Amino acid sequence: MSNCPHRAAMRYKRWATHGLNDVIAENLGRIVEPDRILVLRLLDHIHVVDEIFCHNLEAGFHGHLAPRSIELPSFEAIDRKARAIAAWYVDYAEDLTPERRDAIIEFEYSNGGPARMTRGEMLMHVAMHGTYHRGQIAALLQKNWVAPNPDRMTDFLESERGMPGRAVCAAIAR
Q: What phi-psi label fits residue 102: left (phi over 0), alpha (psi between -120 and 50 degrees) or beta?
């Protein structure tokens, strides 16, 4: 079961989150204020959705009234929480049996609307949701002459297999 797509998706998410946050940490001061705020809002949104679905997966109450924080946290706070929850998702996916993965969970969206998804569907949602917003952040970085971390699935697979990656995106941003 080591090739389970849910497990690979969570490892990819952790890898991509770390790479993006490393680039942002090194370059946050180079990003103009309106774009910096947008980058932080997008990072916060990704994290809050990750947190909401973490609670949904554990059948707990997430306490969020919206898919974002009430007050925008600092980059350092978002980064710390994002790294911790990315590790949680990897551990969760690694321990998930096929029976539990396919079990349907009923929960509420942050707007109070009812929802039903399997644990596997929730994991795929979290993985795909982060990918979409990391792409938005990458565009903002490039707009500010900052090369985003290459976060293609092929780069991830090469890094997991110990193969040297190719930093093609860095050349595009210059």
A: alpha
| DSSP states of 89-146 | HHHHHHH--HHHHT-EEEEE-TTS-EEEEEHHHHHHHHHHHHHHHHHHHHHHHHHTT-
> pTM of the entire structure?
0.87
Residue type, 93: A
DSSP three-state, residue 174: coil
119-143 and 75-95 are packed helices; what angle lies between their axes, rounded to 10 degrees?
A: 150
pLDDT tens, position by position, 52-87? 999 999 877 777 777 899 999 999 999 999 999 999
Tokens 């995106």 label which residue?
169
**SS3 letters across 1-25:** CCCCHHHHHHHHHHHHHHHHHHHHH
Residues 13 and 47: their CA atoms lie apart, in Å, by 12
Rounded CA separation 92/89 (Å): 5
